[in-house]
Design goal:
There is one protein chain. The protein is of the alpha/beta class. It is about 55% helix and about 15% strand. The protein folds into 3 domains: about 120 residues, Conserved hypothetical protein from pyrococcus furiosus pfu- 392566-001, ParB domain (Alpha-Beta Complex), CATH 3.90.1530; about 60 residues, no CATH class; about 70 residues, no CATH class. The strands form 2 sheets. Strands 1, 2, 3, 4, 5 and 6 form a 6-stranded mixed sheet that branches. Strands 7-8 form a two-stranded antiparallel ribbon. Helix 4 crosses helix 6 and helix 8 runs parallel beside helix 10.
């Protein structure tokens, strides 16, 4: 069985792909920047100014090391297939032309090529990748399985990216701007209510929650618990800890009543003159014990 072309071989490896109709010379040409236009379907949308300035400074010193890839759309007019970042940096550097490979490609192949090139270089954020996958599915009328073969990614990987597009726009923008990472987003997707997704998202930003902590919240929410109840329990735990730190022997009765109400169980507190002691909880049945243990499990989280 013939091996699939590996993504690591670079964009030229696409020339051998049966599904992508590409032909033309691989010789390097020097093309005036005025004759080049970006691809409107380029999957990459964000170009960091600082990174472009650094690349531009490098180009001023040593020139463009890696040619960009273009396709000819009419006489003396070219469209970028891969390398828009180098094209932009070259314009900033004041270059009049740029080295380029000229390829002949079908319209439906251009975005696919640009997507693969950017994935190889890890230049796209998660939302850009998701949008590009969706565009390819819609444009080329592919299934996720077929697309996975075309771009060399697992179908589950593609599905995980596409699910990000179901999140509210505010969260999608946060992923794009790297306020939260892909792991946080994948957890938020499992919440069915967009309003709750936004509430948990805000909590992530406010408290800097780890992915593991978000997963715990989401599991509880998907089991039927309300986020506000989970947060109230958390505040109750804080109050208990605060009271324990500050309590004097005379205040233990008040603390005992507070704990009894929180655990819905009879509580006994003993304390010696040195401040050492113990807290005991009474339970009336095995079911009552399991209920109390469940509360401790929540406190551990």
């Amino acid at each position: 069985m013939a091996k699939k072309p590996a993504l690591g071989r670079g964009l030229d490896a696409l020339i051998t792909m049966d599904d992508v109709q590409i032909q033309g010379s691989s010789s390097i040409n020097e093309i005036p920047l005025t004759q080049i236009q970006p691809n409107p379907d380029q999957p990459r949308r964000d170009f960091e100014k600082e990174a472009l300035e650094e690349l531009s400074a490098s180009i001023v010193q040593i020139g463009v090391i890696q040619p960009i890839t273009l396709r000819k759309i009419k006489e003396d007019h070219y469209q970028i297939i891969a390398g828009e970042r180098r094209y932009r940096a070259s314009k900033m550097a004041g270059l009049e032309s740029i080295p380029a490979y000229i390829k002949t490609a079908e319209d439906e192949s251009v975005m696919e090529m640009a997507l693969i090139e950017n994935i190889q270089r890890e230049d796209l954020n998660s939302i850009e990748i998701a949008l590009a996958y969706q565009n390819l599915l819609d444009t080329l009328k592919l299934t996720q399985e077929k697309l996975s073969e075309r771009v060399g990614k697992k179908r589950t990987t593609i599905a995980n990216y596409l699910r990000l597009l179901k999140l509210p726009a505010e969260i999608q923008m946060a992923i794009r701007d790297k306020k939260i990472d892909m792991a946080h987003a994948r957890t938020l997707v499992t919440i069915t209510d967009p309003a709750v997704q936004l509430e948990v998202y805000e909590l992530i930003l406010e408290e800097g929650l780890s992915v593991r902590k978000v997963e715990e919240y989401v599991r509880a929410i998907n089991s039927g618990e309300k986020l506000e109840d989970l947060l109230q329990e958390k505040e109750a735990v804080k109050t208990i800890k605060k009271n324990v730190r500050k309590a004097s022997p005379e205040e233990f009765e008040l603390l005992k009543n507070h704990l009894s109400k929180f655990f819905q169980a009879k509580v006994q507190i003993t304390c010696n003159d040195k401040g050492k002691g113990k807290i005991s909880l009474a339970f009336s049945s095995e079911e009552d014990l399991e209920r109390i243990i469940g509360i401790f499990d929540q406190l551990k989280k």
